[in-house]
């Protein structure tokens, strides 16, 4: 997802500099494009016909790289989620030019002014995308969801599917979705609560024009259908993780809980925003009560999302059980193969074990190599996101030099004090000798430099 939305294109010059600095690929090499054109004409030959199932897709209105299509039906007291995932592996052969380029990229990179896709558009936005303009090859995962939200993968098969509609978060109405859509999402949320899961999905930041002609960082409210749709993906990824772990194979997404220092910083951020956080209330319970419709709470949700020790990938190992703290369960990435390299191999492994076949050697070998490749891609994506946020913060504060802001020091390290502005979702550093975490400050903006993506503040008094 893009870290910041920029509907008025006020970040254009700075974004061009970010693309250059981080060497965001501007296009695909010609051999990759030529191979993709040939692959796009490949006729499915190992897929059963499931075009009678009434699949629909649900994504942002502008999206054309559609990884997932959904259909839901009742089965006694259970619900059956049929989750069709783009069959990227049908178009990409191990070692071909498309595959080699995907290994170089690792993920799709998102910026406010566009993306650098993992695969050429003729595939990612055409032949492999689950668009509603004809049959598409897919892998259908059939997931049984019990009344308490427990999930079980019952089947995985290659199939031809036909999406009935390209639905959008912004405009979808309940009558366009399967009748059980909201109930399935509710069950998954119920199971999350029972496990003590702590996923946080903050709204996206957006550069918005103010009445005085300047700009501000605002938050775009999340649509309820976004969170419900995320629950479907979670259900599939949890069910797949359980199967792969039982078969001693797979590539897992793992993450540790935020450490004590991170929680202390978050408590100081809450204080900066004027949000009460009782000392005895643990983070996992506190964040469940945050409201994304409140700008200050939305900003704190964003801080919580960034406060973890970082998710990474790990192949199955007999020496360490895979665990994802935010999900509170073993977890994989399998539902976005058009955007993440790792998903293509997790899907291939799942198809194998669910159909009584050995996992291909090429997939097992990939599991050993992917953590480094995906880690590098995730790090690059994070650096770009941070640069975009720094740029947006500098742009919105440009011209406000001399103004005074309330702030709270969130933590102090060898680089000085880090502070959270109380009225803006801005975290930056300041030279404030002697300031301890939790110190309230009044700070003056000395300089906002969009070209350098930098802010400079000085303390002007006690903010208490």
From TrEMBL:
<dbReference type="GO" id="GO:0003723">
    <property type="term" value="F:RNA binding"/>
</dbReference>
<dbReference type="Pfam" id="PF18614">
    <property type="entry name" value="RNase_II_C_S1"/>
</dbReference>
<dbReference type="InterPro" id="IPR040596">
    <property type="entry name" value="RNase_II_C_S1"/>
</dbReference>
<dbReference type="GO" id="GO:0005829">
    <property type="term" value="C:cytosol"/>
</dbReference>
<dbReference type="InterPro" id="IPR001900">
    <property type="entry name" value="RNase_II/R"/>
</dbReference>
<dbReference type="GO" id="GO:0006402">
    <property type="term" value="P:mRNA catabolic process"/>
</dbReference>
<dbReference type="InterPro" id="IPR012340">
    <property type="entry name" value="NA-bd_OB-fold"/>
</dbReference>
<dbReference type="InterPro" id="IPR050180">
    <property type="entry name" value="RNR_Ribonuclease"/>
</dbReference>
<dbReference type="Pfam" id="PF00773">
    <property type="entry name" value="RNB"/>
</dbReference>
<protein>
    <submittedName>
        <fullName>Exoribonuclease R</fullName>
    </submittedName>
</protein>
<feature type="domain" description="RNB">
    <location>
        <begin position="47"/>
        <end position="356"/>
    </location>
</feature>
<dbReference type="GO" id="GO:0004540">
    <property type="term" value="F:RNA nuclease activity"/>
</dbReference>
């Amino acid at each position: 997802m893009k870290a910041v939305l920029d509907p008025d294109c006020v970040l254009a010059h700075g974004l061009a500099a970010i693309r250059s600095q981080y060497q965001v690929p501007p296009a695909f090499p010609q051999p990759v494009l030529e191979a993709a054109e040939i692959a796009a004409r490949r006729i499915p030959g190992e897929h059963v016909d499931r075009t009678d199932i009434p699949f629909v897709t649900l994504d942002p209105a502008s999206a054309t790289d559609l990884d997932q299509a959904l259909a839901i039906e009742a089965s006694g007291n259970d619900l059956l989620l049929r989750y069709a995932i783009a069959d990227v592996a049908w178009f990409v052969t191990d070692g071909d030019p498309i595959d080699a380029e995907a290994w170089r990229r690792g993920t799709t990179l998102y910026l406010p002014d566009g993306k650098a896709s993992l695969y050429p558009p003729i595939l990612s936005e055409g032949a492999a995308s689950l668009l509603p303009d004809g049959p598409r090859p897919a892998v259908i995962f059939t997931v049984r969801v019990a009344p308490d939200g427990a999930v079980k993968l019952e089947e995985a098969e290659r199939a031809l599917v036909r999406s009935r509609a390209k639905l959008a978060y912004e405009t979808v109405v309940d009558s366009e979705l399967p009748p059980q859509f909201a109930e399935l999402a509710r069950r998954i949320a119920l199971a999350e609560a029972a496990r003590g899961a702590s996923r946080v999905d903050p709204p996206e930041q957006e550069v918005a024009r103010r009445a005085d002609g300047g700009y501000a960082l605002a938050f775009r409210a999340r649509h309820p259908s976004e969170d419900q749709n995320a629950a479907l993906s979670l259900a599939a990824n949890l069910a797949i993780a359980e199967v792969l772990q039982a078969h001693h194979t797979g590539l897992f997404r793992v993450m540790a809980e935020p450490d004590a220092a991170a929680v202390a910083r978050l408590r100081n951020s809450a204080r900066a925003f004027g949000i009460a956080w009782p000392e005895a209330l643990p983070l996992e319970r506190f964040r469940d009560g945050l409201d994304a419709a409140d700008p200050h709470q939305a900003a704190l949700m964003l801080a919580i999302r960034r406060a973890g020790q970082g998710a990474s990938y790990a192949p199955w190992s007999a020496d360490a059980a895979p665990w994802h703290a935010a999900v509170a369960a073993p977890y994989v990435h399998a539902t976005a193969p058009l955007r993440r390299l790792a998903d293509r191999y997790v899907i291939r492994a799942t198809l194998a074990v669910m159909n009584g076949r050995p996992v291909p050697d090429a997939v097992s070998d990939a599991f050993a190599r992917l953590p480094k490749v995906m880690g590098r891609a995730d790090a690059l994506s994070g650096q770009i996101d941070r640069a975009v946020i720094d740029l947006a913060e500098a742009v919105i504060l440009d011209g406000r030099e001399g103004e005074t802001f309330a702030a709270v020091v969130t933590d102090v390290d060898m680089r000085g004090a880090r502070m959270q502005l109380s009225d803006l979702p801005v975290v930056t550093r300041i030279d404030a000798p002697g300031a301890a975490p939790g110190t309230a400050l009044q700070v003056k903006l000395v300089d906002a430099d969009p070209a350098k993506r930098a802010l400079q503040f000085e303390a002007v008094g006690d903010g208490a």
